[in-house]
Design brief:
Layout: H1 2-33, H2 36-42, E1 50-54, E2 57-61, H3 69-77, H4 98-107, H5 109-117, H6 133-139
Antiparallel strand pairs: 1-2
Helix pairs in contact: 1-6, 4-5
C-alpha cells in the first residue's frame, strides 16, 4: 500500500498547487478587468455583449438568450403546429425522482415492470473523491 500512499500524497500536493495557480489566475484576471484600459474596452460591450481584442488581449461579455416559456406557450398554443415557425421545436423530457420511484416500484411491482424496461444506469468515470491526509500519514 506504500505505493498508493506515495502517489496519493503526490496527488494532494499537485491539487494544492493547482488550487494556488487557479486562484492566482482568477486574481490576475480580476486585476486586468479592473484596469481603466479594460473598462474603456468593455464599456461599449456592456449593452449587447460581444468581444473586442486589443493588444492581443480579447475582452468579452457573454450573452445568453432567454425565452419566456409561458409567453411562448401562449403564442404556440394559439398557432396550429403545422404553422409554427422553423426556429421553434418542442422538447418533452420526463424526469424521474429515483427515491419516489423506488418506493412506488416496491409497492406496485405489477405496474412497475414497463418502467423497469425503460430504466438503465450509466456508470461514470473512475475517480478519487477524497483523500484524508491525516489518515494517510498514519498508514506510513
Amino acid at each position: 500500500m506504500s505505493e498508493v500512499n506515495s502517489l496519493a500524497k503526490q496527488l494532494i500536493a499537485a491539487q494544492r498547487k493547482k488550487q494556488e495557480i487557479d486562484q492566482c489566475i482568477k486574481d490576475l484576471k480580476k486585476k486586468i478587468l479592473d484596469t481603466e484600459d479594460a473598462s474603456q474596452i468593455l464599456t461599449p460591450l456592456s449593452n449587447e455583449g460581444g468581444s473586442k481584442t486589443q493588444n492581443g488581449i480579447t475582452f468579452s461579455i457573454g450573452r445568453t438568450h432567454l425565452w419566456n416559456q409561458e409567453a411562448l406557450d401562449e403564442i404556440l398554443e394559439a398557432t396550429p403546429r403545422e404553422y409554427w415557425p422553423p426556429f421553434v421545436r418542442q422538447i418533452t423530457e420526463y424526469k424521474v425522482d429515483n427515491t419516489v420511484w423506488n418506493k412506488w416500484a416496491l409497492a406496485n411491482p405489477g405496474l412497475a415492470e414497463p418502467f423497469h424496461r425503460a430504466h438503465s444506469i450509466q456508470l461514470g468515470d473512475r475517480s478519487i473523491t477524497k483523500i484524508d491526509i491525516d489518515k494517510l500519514n498514519k498508514e506510513d
